[in-house]
Predict the 3D structure of the following.
Amino acid sequence: MLGDLSPILVFAFVGGAMHDGGFSLLDVLRNVGLLCAGWVAAAVLFRPYAHPGVLRLGATWAVGISVGVLLRAAALGRTVDGEYLGFWAVALTLTLIVLVAWRWIARVFMTSLDATTSS
């Protein structure tokens, strides 16, 4: 599960570094905490680690990131308007890309480790 939270870290740090207001570690930590809370809540609901599968992981990602984005909106007192929907779309897109990359790297590493161990 910890590896699956890496997309949230990447998203928060990239987002924090790209905005005109400058990089604020407190803002990044707030965003990480809220998005991770959404992910963990979705993981409890969909149980992708107890019953692995692409559909459960996908549901955890989609619902978890969405809940985290909505928690962030509430924490910042933002309305979910067109601009915030853009933020939501970027959050979903970037976290999906990093999640797929992370899962692929982990699978390649575990496969090579298995091959090395069984030799």
In short: DSSP finds four helices and no strands in the chain. The chain has one domain: 3-118. The mean pLDDT is 89. The CA atoms of residues 68 and 104 lie 24 Å apart.
